[in-house]
User: What shape does this take?
Amino acid sequence: MHWYLIHTKPRLEKYALENLERQGYECYLPLYPAERMRRRKLTVTDSPLFPRYLFIRLGQEDSGKSWAPLRSTRGVSRLVHFGQQPAQVDDALITLLKSREQSLQSVPERMFNRGDPVQIADGPFADIEAIYQIPDGERRALVLIEILNKPVSLRVDIASLRKTG
Assistant: This one.
């Protein structure tokens, strides 16, 4: 039994994982927590570490579970190949990824970090460049804008910020 790499359809990694596991395959999808904007609110969701890829454990064609159903599984695009050979992944890499994933679960990747250049997308200060400072409550953030050559603190709705640069 060896680990191989599956290429999935866009944003269907979890769907492909669910369908493959339902068929009895052993699969692994490394995830990490990240902040995302959902319905104008900042939420923490599990995102794939490698978008459009997941790992599957398969045996040789004679002894292991058949490889044929992989192509027709919903969410799966194809098995990754290098030339004529499927891309085999070392067991040590999977073990390392699993241990690293455990350490990543405690701290989500922040959408905005202190000092990030942002642009205000709507409101009275729309299209003005700013520098992100800190979150201010659940739905607001504190940013610095420059007015008359002076930095001024401003509280804005976090959903109205866009990363630049």
